[in-house]
Amino acid sequence: MNISNKKLKLWELNRISDEEYRLQAKIPVIIILDDIRSLNNIGSFFRTADAFCIEKIYLCGITACPPHKDIHKTALGATEVVTWEYHSSIIDLVTGLKLQGYAVYAIEQATETIELQKISDLESQRYALVFGNEVNGVQQDIIELSNGVIEIPQFGTKHSLNVSVCAGIVLWEFCKNLHPQLQTNK
Predict the structure, then answer these.
(1) Which residues form the domain of 159?
(2) Tens digits of residue pLDDT in 4-28
(3) CATH number (domain holding residue 149)
(4) How many domains, the chain?
(5) Of 58, 71, 116, 154, which one has the fewest beta carbons inside 10 Å?
(6) Structural element, H or E, at residue 114
C-alpha cells in the first residue's frame, strides 16, 4: 500500500474563486443544447463546462434555464460562473454563430462523420458543438446546417450514451486539443 498517495480534501484542491474563473481565458468552444429534457443533464453540462473552462452554453428549445433546483442539484453552482444564454431558435443561433466564424459540429451518429479522436485534424479555431434531445438526438435540419458531424466510436451493443456523459467525453477531447496548459507535449 502506498501511504504517500492520499486523497485530497476539498480545501486542498486550490480552487479558484468565481471571479478568477470569470476572468480567466476560456477554450474557444460553445455548447448548444437543443431540446434537452432532463434538468439533471442540463446541470451536468454546466458542471462539465466549468471543469473544462468552456466559453459559453446556449440553451435552446425546451431546454430549461437556471435557476432551477434540479439543475442546481447537478450543476453545484456552475450556473453562477459559466456564461449562458437562452435562444429560442436553434437555426437562427447556428446561422449567426457560423457568420461569427464558429465551425458548428453536431455531436451525433450519421452517414458521414468525423471520429472524435480525429478532431485535431479540424481547421477551425472556434467551435460550437450541438448536443441534441435525449431521445431524438440532433435535428436533421441542424445536421444539414452544420460544418460536420462528430461521432464517438462505440463498440458495445447499444451505440448510445447519455447526453451528459457524451458531453464529458467530447469536451475533454476538445480541451486536450485546445487548452494551453495541456499543449506542452505537442
Answers:
(1) 24-180
(2) 899 999 899 999 999 999 999 999 9
(3) 3.40.1280.10
(4) 1
(5) 154
(6) strand 114-115
